[in-house]
Amino acid sequence: MSTFFRSPAASPAQTRPDAANPEESPQITTRSARRARHAGQDRVQELEQENSQLRAELDRLRSQKRPIRRSNSLGSGRPKRTAEKRRRHLLRDSIMHTVEEDEGGDGSANVRITRNKISRQASIGTATVLKQMPSTPRPAGFSLELPTRVVAVFREPLRSEHTEYLGSSQFADDILNLARQAGRRFEREPRVLRLESPAYVFGDTHGNLEDLHFFSDHIWKLGVSLTAGQLLFLGDYVDRGLSSLEVVAYLLALKCLEPQKVWLLRGNHETRDVNGWEEHYGDRSFLWQCKHRFGDELGPVVWEGVNACFDRLPLCAVIDDEICCVHGGMPRRPPPGPRPFCADADQKTRLELLDMVPHVITINPPDNSIDADLQQMASECLWSDPAVEEQEPDLNETGFGESLRGGGTVCFGHAAIKAFLEETGCAFIVRAHEAHAHGVSLSKGAKVFTVFSTSKDHHQGRAASCGCILIDVEKIQVITRSPHYRNHYVHKRNSMSLIGIPQDEINRRKQIGLVVDDFDDDDDDGVEYLDDSEDEEDVFGA
Fold first, then answer.
1. Residue 262 Cα to chain centre, angstroms
2. Bias category Basic residues: which stretches (predicted)?
3. Are 83 and 73 in contact (CB under 8 A)?
4. Which of 15, 376, 436, 539 is the most exposed place for a label (fewest CB within 10 A)?
5. CB-facing half-sphere around the CA of 446: CA atoms within 13 A
6. Longest pairwise C-alpha distance within the chain
7. Would you give the DSSP letter of residue 90?
């Protein structure tokens, strides 16, 4: 240590005349080392003090820099445009919200929501591996050529040969064939599907080809077979949007291609009384679109053939025995006591009773040959809604009451939800049926998810989004489309993108809903409203 602190200019041999004395030299060296050591310690303290001052100055400069950066981003000129451009670019990515339930130390349950961007990767070699795996034998009469061709048309609907095909009688024949193939599959499925996660759950699509393209481009871009997870659609595929025929054809084609990965439930618009109501929906009615596309003779044939397929759709799905998925909501229990369809109905859960609904049922209009209790339960799966908080005091002892839709439809409150979840062992309800500007909403103590997968034709405004839900084991992740996202399929008639396109091609696109005179939601105020008008009151019974 003495050598490290000693300075050559202050060597004892050079500064003290008696340093040559061998008896005094060790004492002199020790005193000199002690002085040098004290001097070194003082210097270390000085350096530490200077370092602390520098850190304090750096913190001060950083604190001054933050408001300057914020003011630049909020001020006028180029920095604002750059920040806005960066913000919009980031919003183009899809967002996942992970909803988890944590149990606190006091035993209470807390819902935690985290937000993350999503992306997906897949190996091209996965396709080869999947093709080598044994597949489920396809029944006789099921051909892959037709659904494969329809899916190819959906991927590129703007090609001139495809727009011509979509307005042809050949397309009508293909829809009828798809409806027959898919209908036979639906008829063999249980009324309550039992699925395993991962599964993507979609709400109403309502003839919106544009938003359906968004999901296909971002969730099953490489094809359903290469997508990790199943696809579950909760109904309402037709009406309101101008591309109901394309949406139905595409979804039925996916079902025929991947019957164990694509699942379709029934919504209230998959009934004849609703999708045939031309007086109410006008050119947004599925029946009107069938007749407009294929003529007054062939059009009703296509409409009836598709509705015959709808009559066979399942009513409900349960994922991982915990997530109950349905179009509208839970049904009421039948009156107590033995029922004609089940002697011990009181010992059955409502999911077990729903599985007793006939596999072919019209619902609206009612089928008098089917037990009234089963028909009521099937109808309430399609039509019911969560009660708004103002309705809760007016609900009966079971938690049910009259819906704002009228027409004998019902709503369910906290008590009904609690009883249903305890009865079935489920933890959450995922449903559709109501428009929401954000695509997905939570209600009833975060026990009910409402998912809406179309952003148009429901008076939600220009900024409306569409969404779906990914259920993955113990996680529920919400995926929504940014309102800034735009694709290139649907255009206004005066759009610059149509310049140079022949008039006959523009007319064909207009016929199939790819060219519109105006976007109906441009002037909407974004106020949420129920899926169907109050004009339906007293038209559809429960």
1. 15
2. 78-88
3. yes
4. 15
5. 11
6. 129
7. H
